[in-house]
Amino acid sequence: MYNKILVGIDGSEQADKAFSVGCELAKTLSAKLFLLWVVNRDRGMLSSFGVNEDFYQDLYNQVKEKLNPYQKQAQSLNIEVTSKAVIGNVKTTLAKYFPEENNIDLIVLGNGKLQV
Question: What is the distance between the alpha carbons of residues 77 and 75, in angstroms, rounded to a whole number?
């Protein structure tokens, strides 16, 4: 049985579809839903464009606000939901670190490449 479901959010249409599927699964299984938006820290941007920590912090602050409608929609469906924004590597954060730290049973992702 799945008790904790993680949905990766990035603002893309595919992520929105993954969110809908995650909500359906959470409601059907009475599972807790975790919404995670990872601001991708791209090492290439650091060296090529001189991007500093302020750039990522600004994106992080924007993303935190963008998560609110997702959380509210899940709550309106009576789903226990937690949303979080982090700065890091999208792949390792979604596939390894966050799931291990939160005992995630199921990960639902879209196939989008927006990665904001």
Answer: 5
CA distance 82 to 64: 12
**What domains can you pick out in the chain, each with its CATH number?**
4-108 (3.40.50.620)
Q: Which two tokens stand for residue 69?
A: 């409608």
For residues 36 and 22, what is the distance between their CA atoms, to the nearest angstrom?
12
Contacts of 111 (CB under 8 A, 6+ apart): 14
Radius of gyration of the chain (CA): 14
pLDDT in tens, 31-72: 999 999 999 876 655 555 566 778 888 899 999 999 999 999
Nearest partner of 104 among 1, 27, 38, 6, judged by Cα: 6
Q: What single letter denotes the amino acid at residue 90?
A: V
Residue 112 has phi, psi (to 5 degrees) of -70, 165
Give pTM, 2 decimals: 0.88
Q: Which residues contact 59 (CB under 8 A, 6 or more apart)?
A: 39, 87, 116
